[in-house]
Design brief:
The chain has 244 residues and is an alpha/beta fold. It contains eight helices and twelve strands. A six-stranded mixed β-sheet has the order 3-2-1-11-12-9. Bound molecules: fe (ii) ion (2 copies).
Length: 244
């Protein structure tokens, strides 16, 4: 089975549609999102509506989704993120809030595991170091474990001596899932932070046990114009164009 794997849409409808079109062109019908469907971007309602109508799309809850529905306190977020959460709340309908409230914290399938931040702290941990990977690696049964949250595409694995390694992933880079402790972050659709402003996503082939990262271009200026019209923080508008 080939799965479309992505994360951190963050209310960016243009990027979301571009990634969905890409998966559709690839003939991918099973789609999995590692959380943060909303927050930051100007179209949270449209993104929730689109997600709710795509057959074969499954999501886990992200910290921004959790804050919007009241499962996390906004005080844990920086000023720009908190402002974006208030903006998101003001845009969502009751039906959209209900959709978010029914998203699980974790998905376990026969082919992989999925959480937002990390298996031990799904809503808060930014899994960026090899030590954190070691601390978490006993907490999933089926590799790979897909996470999001950091917005940085990368992969962790242990070598034959049990030493942990992390590598950043670029366009078209492949990760072989050849051990039972591989963790992969597909990067962010709606707000990449690795210096490449294109939307990030990946395809996991569970038969070949290979993940491949893809970067998808979209019209960033349209999203930035919408953010300006919504008086969203300048910092959030600028960083989108730089992928930071
Ligand atoms: Fe995020
Ligand atoms: Fe997050």
């Amino acid at each position: 089975m080939r799965y479309g794997i992505f994360s951190d849409v963050h209310g960016n409808l243009e990027a979301f549609k571009a990634v969905m079109d890409f998966f559709s062109r690839q003939g991918i019908t099973k789609l999995f999102c590692c959380g943060d469907l909303v927050g930051y971007g100007p179209n949270p309602l449209e993104c929730v509506k689109l997600a709710s109508t795509i057959k074969g799309l499954y999501l886990v809850l992200g910290n921004h989704d959790a804050a919007v529905i009241g499962r996390m306190k906004v005080k844990w977020f920086n000023d720009a993120a908190a402002a974006a959460i208030e903006h998101t709340r003001s845009r969502l309908t009751g039906e959209a809030m209900e959709f978010l409230k029914h998203i699980p914290l974790r998905i376990d399938t026969p082919d992989f595991t999925m959480v937002h931040g990390s298996p031990s702290k799904p809503l808060v941990e930014y899994l960026i170091s090899e030590m954190q990977f070691l601390d978490n690696k006993k907490l999933w049964k089926t590799s790979p474990c897909f996470v999001g949250h950091t917005h940085i595409p990368c992969a962790f694995h242990c070598d034959e001596n049990g030493f942990p390694h992390m590598e950043l992933l670029k366009q078209n880079q492949m990760v072989k899932v050849d051990t039972d402790s591989v963790l992969i972050n597909p990067g962010a659709v709606g707000q990449p932070r690795d210096g490449d402003p294109r939307a990030s996503c990946g395809i996991y082939d569970s038969f070949m046990k290979v993940f491949r990262l893809h970067r998808i271009s979209y019209d960033i200026k349209i999203t930035q114009q919408k953010m300006m019209q919504s008086n969203m923080p300048e910092l959030l508008i600028e960083r989108l164009g730089m992928g930071l």
